[in-house]
Design goal:
The protein has a single domain, classed as Orthogonal Bundle (Farnesyl Diphosphate Synthase), CATH 1.10.600.10. The protein has 278 residues and is mostly helical. It has 13 helices and 2 strands. The chain is globular, with a radius of gyration of 18 Å.
Length: 278
């Protein structure tokens, strides 16, 4: 394949990551250099699918998502795509031994977002698996660089970490997801009765996932550990901020970490990493 075309496509994925997510792109920069491009390429694929179901509301999203699914399948089979995001993703797919079940499970979760949805426990677990846990496994495939034994060892905890990140997103976006998209992800949650007890139950669920996920971070190869630790600390800080706020504030605004605080957080992470203070 033409190295220049590969480079152009990967730059498109990198640009997509940096435009859509300051925190994710900064965390990716703390990975070893050889991991950065593959992770950008995964994020670009995931982000475009998410944009179809969350943003393109004036278009036929079902048709767009079906076409996107067919296009990524063709990209993987043909090992080339004229869609730069899908071309860069298929390169990661083949280089690091991703499997189609991960891609298919992710796209199935995106399909669930095509309709207004109040989730029960079964559909909630299914959505978390597809939208978060398998994305974590795609990245884990990159980080272990073909070490299948290490992959299987870290797999359950990588899934827990991805689930924790996603659940924090759900909690942070509780109002917008319901008001703008008609979604309530947390099973059994009545937003008209979202009180301190309901909020605390969700936070405890996230804390349990975080505890398992943290053990997985410690087990990662050193060249990927720091970048994932930065992401963990960012989300832990976000959860801490959410924990201090009353339910009415969570329902009224999207909680954010200012960029200045992010940079301070990243510097603290570096010190911890430098002296192995995990």
């Amino acid at each position: 394949m033409d190295p220049l075309y590969d480079k152009v496509c990967s730059k498109a994925s990198e640009y997509t990551t940096k435009q859509y997510s300051t925190s994710f792109s900064l965390g990716t920069r703390f990975l070893a250099k050889r991991f950065q491009e593959p992770v950008y390429n995964i994020y670009g694929f995931v982000r475009f699918a998410d944009e179809i179901v969350d943003t393109f509301l004036e278009h036929d999203r079902e048709r767009l998502l079906l076409k996107f699914r067919m296009d990524v399948r063709d990209a993987v089979q043909d090992r080339i795509s004229l869609n730069p995001i899908l071309h860069s993703f298929q390169r990661v797919y083949h280089q690091f031994g991703l499997t189609w079940d991960l891609v298919d499970t992710f796209l199935n979760s995106m399909e669930m977002d095509l309709e207004e949805h109040v989730y029960d426990q079964k559909s909630y677990d299914e959505y978390i698996l597809g939208s978060a846990e398998v994305v974590g496994l795609m990245c884990l495939r990159v980080f272990v660089e073909g070490d299948n034994e290490k992959y299987e060892e870290l797999k359950p905890r990588a899934m827990k970490l991805g689930a924790a990140f996603q659940k924090i997103n759900f909690l942070r976006d509780l109002h917008d997801d319901n008001a703008e998209l008609g979604r309530v992800y947390f099973p059994g949650l009545d937003l008209t009765q979202f009180d301190v007890d309901a909020k605390r139950r969700i936070e405890r669920e996230i804390e349990a996932d975080f505890a398992e996920g943290y053990l997985g971070i410690i087990g990662l190869p050193k060249d990927s550990r720091f970048g994932v630790f930065v992401a963990y600390k960012y989300y832990a800080n976000l959860l801490q901020k959410i924990r201090k706020l009353p339910p009415s504030t969570i329902m009224g605004q999207r909680v954010r970490i200012p960029n200045a605080i992010k940079y301070v957080l990243f510097m603290k992470c570096y010190v911890q990493h430098r002296f192995n203070l995990y």
